[in-house]
Design brief:
Elements (H helix, E strand, L loop, with lengths): L4 H19 L6 H28 L3 H29 L6 H10 L8 H12 L4 H13 L3 H13 L10 H13 L5 H22 L1
Helix pairs in contact: 1-2, 1-3, 2-3, 3-4, 5-6, 6-7, 7-8, 8-9
Length: 209
């Protein structure tokens, strides 16, 4: 195999431009979906393992380091391509399962939309898998994503299944304030609302004691 990462990237970009052109016209694109999936499967099952096997056979440290960097770049390219594909699938009916598969792949690797994908995957999992949803919200928060930070504030305030079905105004304030620091317009005001609600609840408890 003589494929280079640059060649793979050109091929993927060509596929995405071709696919986008059809998706923008609301075409269901079944045959193109299959082609795009085949390309991503080739990355996952042939191309990435090829680089991994090359690394395992190399004994020279300098060459191994170069190959490791290539592999890291390739993982990032795969994740970015999965994101582009998932974005297109989100606009095509009856592709929810495939959309979630590639959206989850897009939550890994090194690419600019990674935390965005982590947030959307977490949002998709809120009802079906609350524990998984929380895990991906926390990843997005750790990556500095303000929308995910604000959403965790909402979930703690409401006591949703994602946060174990427990309401915690203290935790809600923590995430709302952090969201505000990160630039969310409602972060500070929602934190203040929770602080006031917490104080009112404490006063009521003291009065009834």
């Amino acid at each position: 195999m003589s494929l280079k990462i640059g060649d793979i990237e050109v091929l993927i970009l060509q596929m995405n431009r071709y696919f986008d052109a059809f998706a923008s016209k609301n075409w269901n694109g079944v045959s193109v979906i299959k082609t795009q999936e085949d390309l991503l499967e080739q990355l996952a099952t042939v191309i990435i393992p090829y680089f991994e096997s090359k690394i395992s056979r190399v004994t020279t440290e300098a060459i191994s380091k170069d190959l490791q960097e290539e592999l890291q770049e390739l993982h990032g390219l795969y994740a970015k391509s999965a994101y582009q594909y998932a974005f297109i699938l989100s606009r095509i009916p009856d592709q929810k399962e495939t959309y979630l598969k590639y959206l989850r792949i897009a939550t890994e690797g090194n690419h600019s939309q990674k935390r965005h994908c982590q947030y959307y995957f977490a949002k998709e999992m809120e009802v079906t898998d609350p524990a998984l949803s929380l895990n991906y919200y926390e990843k997005a928060v750790h990556a500095g994503y303000q929308v995910a930070t604000f959403r965790l504030g909402e979930l703690w305030e409401a006591g949703s299944a994602v946060v174990g079905g427990q309401s915690s105004l203290e935790k809600a304030v923590e995430f709302y304030q952090l969201a505000g620091v990160r630039g969310h317009q409602e972060g500070a005001s929602r934190a203040l609302k929770c602080i006031k609600a917490k104080e009112a609840a404490e006063e009521k408890e003291m009065a009834s004691a």
